[in-house]
Amino acid sequence: MTIQMIARAAFALLLVLAAWLSVSPSLEPSEAGFGVARWLAGLLFGDEAAADKIGHFLVYGALGATAALGRLALAGRLLFTVLALAAYGALLEGAQGWLTQTRSPEVLDALANTAGAGAGAILGALARMAASRRRTG
Known about the structure:
Layout: H1 3-23, H2 35-45, H3 51-69, H4 78-99, H5 107-136
Helix pairs in contact: 1-3, 1-4, 2-3, 3-4, 3-5, 4-5
Protein name: VanZ like family protein
Keywords: Membrane, Transmembrane, Transmembrane helix
Transmembrane segments: 53-72, 79-99, 111-131
């Protein structure tokens, strides 16, 4: 099994996870799963309240990275994949208002999704290029 195949499988699982996390009942940043996000929010912003945005950034960063590693480029462009992930995140944010009674859409969450997808795609593409150079060099 190649890295590309593993990345594509991880991408598919992450798409489902992102949808489930977006429309499931509200998760509190104080819950155990948010430990890393709380730590990063405190480290980067001096405020653990930003853990929710860090969580959005990390999930969509993982999506962007696995898209790049899996060579999932819409119309041959990774940028289009990032834009599609941004649209997916915005759609899921909007769905929160319709599908749940405990969650509401937030523009900052959609922006964190977009930033994460872009950053992850860049890191994934750089990792893929580095791995390619190692194999050839």
